[in-house]
Write a structure and sequence with these properties.
The chain has about 900 residues and is an alpha/beta fold. About 30% of the residues lie in helices and about 20% in strands. It folds into six domains: about 20-70, N-terminal domain of TfIIb (Single Sheet); about 80-145 and about 345-505, 3-Layer(aba) Sandwich (Rossmann fold); about 150-340, 3-Layer(aba) Sandwich (Dimethylsulfoxide Reductase, domain 2); about 600-715, Barwin-like endoglucanases, CATH 2.40.40; about 720-850, no CATH class; about 865-915, Arc Repressor Mutant, subunit A. The structure holds iron/sulfur cluster (SF4). Iron/sulfur cluster (SF4) binds near residues 31, 190 and 192. The site of iron/sulfur cluster (SF4) has 14 residues, from helix 2 and helix 8.
């Protein structure tokens, strides 16, 4: 064992009780270390805390990470293999997959099959999936949902550095004098990294610039917010490069010694006139000048960027325009300096490492490089090797749609909701002759289309490694027993490969042996010519793998490289070792607004949800922050569109339509709207936002333009609105608007209709007693006469005011509430969800129909602090009363913000700008 590994192992056990398992958070690319321990006999709850020894988070967790212990419920899990909706044994399912893939390849060639995988799977899963497709089937038709997240960064890195190298470390954000966040809502999307930056700013006075069309929560710690016009980043950075050149801020020595392409890049950058710069960026000359002056004045600059840069039809040019400025000033490869792409997913980086993208080989080798192809094929001893790129995600599903791909295996992702032109993607998958879906959940919008469903191990059950945004490889370790028949994704791939006749390449004893093989491949014929080398681990034993502590690559077999920081010596991975400045002429977004579609739709994440909510929606407290899909719009645009706050709006693009709740806010740039990416048909009946997104992609990276879709927004012509609390899931498809969110013991529903129901009693009956009709009419206590538990319903109707209210009880316990009104339903949601399963007698039942707490019980309002269930109204009251004048004071009084800290920035905004109490 290497001394380094021994050292890491001793760190591994230090300070951790034997019954805590060290693992890694399965959400964002920060890659926080987590300590987990089962908290009940069935292991469906766990205690969770941040790992104080993990170098990514040093014990911190955000709201999502802190709630991980509540997401282990077995409800809704896919427990058995299924074929055409019938439960089958593994052997039947795997043999069918192998047979259909084999037949399809034999009849139609290797490019007629495809794998679509995910940044959620582990590196070991990714490695064997890529090996099967590129080395044995012989096609590069394997792509990943990471294409939607950071493909432009990969291409930009390769163009500039000759390798897909993220050169920075998280500590650089703490050592920088200036941190520029471009298209990155770090506060909500990488919260622990944001917290590290916020602490550094308090200690050192770090200057922070945020470049984002929206005034996101991240702006609360910014010295300068540039509300750039969507798509204007290349122009802004070309302007910066031109400014640096004119002002003599270029590091001439560095440029001459270590780069090429400088003159051409500057020539293109300088073509942009002042007027063109302002028109493309929507920023004033003064705003640009302030940013340029800050960049010029600070040697230690880190530029953090993510989806706001990558998800664009000019995403790769945006990346290179940023890299150009760092290369021109030599601000790269040094402490506290450099461009820093932060990934959205927990293992987007691991996927890149093993070749999970259709245009990469494995171990950061290139498909287009025949020598790399030979190295990989020799190493794998594979019958063939793919030598041309496969279909990238958007094209892959087009190829499914037009029949070029006839057998598709989707693993750990939900393309029916997450890809652009999502309705077309749904049609394409539905029409594909053979679809396999490996997933943890039984019911997703994608699993319903699978011919074969393969049950996968979930976080907490599975074992392997992930790589975070700073190239740190950490173990995900199991800490709960594996449920039923579920199996690791790597095992599923290997079993199918063997059944296809590829026995020799896929006999692995477990993830440790896959990891060792992958580590060895990174060192194969690698004399320092490739960035990725972890061959120090090529002989890792099972025990060493189990004890593996987080480490950053590179870690070559011969010991640490001469320079442990990438590019510190000015050498890059291009043939002449020089970095390349790419000329990046400004291009406007591919779509244009018009009279019919005058607003620009931007999509993104919210603080407490993850992707398509299959895990985060298992914990009600994460849904208490935002319980339904919403669209944010500037007050001027809302007025022009005839919209008011909390109304429902239809949002339409050329490819689809959704309905969402309106949030009117001046934090939204005029002319743009924002909607979250998370809601699916499982949680709302018409809020799959990717159905609206066009299929325009970046020509280099294939990444879709998810931040710029022309739309129109108009009020939904709803004639009634409703809110209900129910104990079991109800069918929501038939409503004009419906959103359903789990709560403790049941579900909450937001409803609306464009036609008044023929009978309110019947509707209440469907919602509150899905198994049978109510007996009786309005304004009286009714008792059902169904077989089964007796449900009593108290109802209040005011026809003239258009108010209909129902409360249902079983054995004195509240089992449902339904409030309907012509206009909005003005009741306290936070209070209402807490009434489920509470005991009520006599007049107390009527009190429930008032829809709000009694006078002696305060209405907490929408939940801001998910850890301690602290609501907006509690915080605003504490501020307005003068008792709390700081985030710390709010924490002292209400505990809000004192655990994970994810809500501290929101509390800070309430303190700075003031906020009105609202019905929760
Ligand atoms: Fe998980 Fe939050 Fe850490 Fe991201 S920041 S890895 S979501 S705990």
């Amino acid at each position: 064992m290497s001394p380094r590994l021994r050292n890491l192992m001793s760190l591994e056990v230090e300070g951790v009780a034997a019954d805590w398992t060290k693992t890694t958070c399965p959400y964002c690319g920060v890659g926080c270390g987590v300590l987990a321990k089962p908290a009940n006999k069935t292991c469906t709850l766990a205690e969770i805390k941040g790992d104080p020894d993990h170098p990514s988070n040093f014990g911190r967790l955000c709201s999502k990470g802190a709630a991980l212990g509540e997401t282990l419920s077995l409800d809704g899990r896919l427990r058995h293999p299924m074929i055409d909706g019938e439960q089958r044994c593994w052997d039947d399912a795997l043999s069918l997959v192998a047979e259909r893939f084999r037949e399809t390849v034999d009849c139609h060639g290797p490019d007629s099959v495809a794998l679509y995988v995910s940044g959620q799977i582990l590196t070991e899963d990714y490695y064997v999936a890529n090996k099967l497709m590129k080395g044995f089937i012989g096609s590069a038709n394997i792509d990943t949902n990471s294409r939607l997240c950071m493909a432009s960064s990969v291409t930009g890195h390769n163009r500039a550095f000759g390798s897909d190298t993220v050169p920075g470390n998280y500590e650089d954000l703490e050592l920088a004098d200036l941190v520029v966040l471009v298209g990155s809502n770090l506060a909500w999307c990488h919260p622990v990294l944001f917290q590290r930056l916020a602490v550094a700013r308090e200690k050192r006075g770090t200057k922070i610039v945020v470049i984002d069309p929206r005034r996101t929560m991240t702006c609360e710690i910014a010295d300068l917010h540039l509300a750039i016009a969507p798509g204007g980043d290349v122009a802004l950075y070309n302007g910066l490069l031109a400014h640096l050149t004119v002002e003599g801020q270029v590091n001439d020595e560095y440029v001459a010694a270590h780069t090429s392409g400088f003159d051409a890049a500057v020539a293109v950058a300088a073509q942009l006139s002042e007027g063109e710069l302002q028109s493309a960026t929507g920023l004033s000359a003064d705003e640009c000048a302030k940013f340029y002056a800050l960049f010029s004045a600070n040697e230690r600059v880190v530029t953090v960027y993510s989806q706001g840069v990558n998800q664009s039809s000019s995403g790769t040019d945006k990346v290179n325009a940023i890299l150009n400025c760092h290369l021109a000033t030599g601000r790269i490869g040094k402490l506290g300096c450099g461009p820093f792409s932060v990934t959205g997913q927990p293992n987007a980086m691991g996927g890149r490492e093993v070749g999970g993208l259709a245009n990469m080989l494995a171990a950061h080798m290139q498909l287009s490089n025949t020598e790399h192809g030979r190295i990989v094929q020799d190493f794998w001893q594979s019958p063939r090797i793919a030598n041309r790129p496969g279909y990238k995600a958007v094209d892959l599903f087009r190829a499914v749609g037009d029949g070029r791909i006839k057998a598709l295996w989707i693993m750990a992702t939900n393309p029916v909701d997450s890809l652009p032109e999502a309705d077309l993607v749904r049609e394409a998958i539905a029409g594909c002759p053979f679809v396999v879906v490996s997933d943890v959940e039984r019911h997703t919008d994608t699993t319903v289309l699978g011919h074969v469903l393969l049950p996968s191990q979930s976080w907490g059950e599975k074992s392997g490694t992930v790589t975070n945004s700073e190239r740190r490889i950490s173990r995900q370790r199991p800490f709960v027993p594996v449920m039923g028949e579920v199996k690791p994704d790597w095992w599923q791939i290997c079993e199918v490969a063997k059944r296809m006749g590829y026995n020799e390449g896929f006999e692995y004893a477990g993830p440790a042996s896959i990891f060792a093989e992958y580590a060895a491949l990174t060192g194969a014929e690698n004399d320092g010519s490739r960035d990725l080398d972890i061959s120090a681990y090529e002989k890792v034993t099972v025990a060493e793998y189990d004890a593996l502590a987080p480490f950053q690559w590179p870690q070559p077999a011969g010991g640490l490289p001469r320079e442990t920081r990438f590019f510190a010596d000015g050498d890059f991975f291009t043939p002449d070792k020089r970095a390349y400045l790419v000329a990046t002429p400004f291009r406007a977004p591919a779509s244009k607004t018009s009279e019919a579609f005058p607003l620009v739709l931007n999509t993104g994440r919210i603080r407490d949800q993850w992707h398509t909510m299959t895990r985060t929606a298992k914990t009600p407290r994460l849904l208490s922050h935002y319980a339904e899909p919403f669209v944010e719009i500037h007050p001027d645009d809302a007025r022009a569109s005839g919209l008011e706050a909390a109304q429902l709006a239809e949002i339409e693009s050329r490819s689809g339509r959704v309905v969402m709740r309106v949030v009117v806010t001046d934090q939204q740039r005029r002319g743009t709207v924002f909607a979250p990416m998370h809601w699916t048909d499982q949680f709302a009946n018409n809020a799959r936002i990717d159905a609206l997104i066009s299929g325009h992609t970046d020509p280099q990276s294939g990444q879709p333009e998810s931040k710029f879709t022309p739309v129109r927004v108009q009020p939904l012509n709803a004639r009634w609105h409703g809110f209900a609390i129910v104990t079991s899931r109800v069918e929501i498809a038939s409503f004009d608007y419906a959103a359903i969110a789990p709560i403790a013991g049941g579900f909450r529903l937001e409803l609306a209709g464009c036609e008044v129901p023929a009978s309110w009693v019947e509707l209440a009956d469907e919602l509150l007693q899905p198994s049978g009709p109510l007996d009786g009419t309005a304004a009286a206590t009714q008792v059902s006469n169904r077989v089964g538990p007796v449900i009593e319903v108290v109802a209040y109707h005011d026809r003239s005011a258009g108010q209909y209210r129902f409360a249902a009880f079983c054995d004195d316990r509240c089992v449902g509430l339904f409030f309907a009104a012509r206009g909005s339903v003005e009741i306290s949601r936070t209070w209402a969800v807490e009434q489920l399963d509470q005991a009520f007698e006599g007049a107390e039942r009527l009190q429930l129909l008032a829809g709000r707490p009694g006078r002696d019980v305060p209405d907490r309002g929408r939940i801001i602090c998910a850890c301690f269930d602290v609501g907006l109204n509690q915080i605003t009251e504490a501020i307005a009363s003068g008792r709390c004048d700081s985030v710390a004071a709010v924490g002292d009084e209400l505990k809000a913000g004192t655990n994970c800290g994810s809500c501290r920035v929101e509390i800070g905004r309430l303190l700075n700008e003031g906020c009105f109490a609202e019905a929760g």
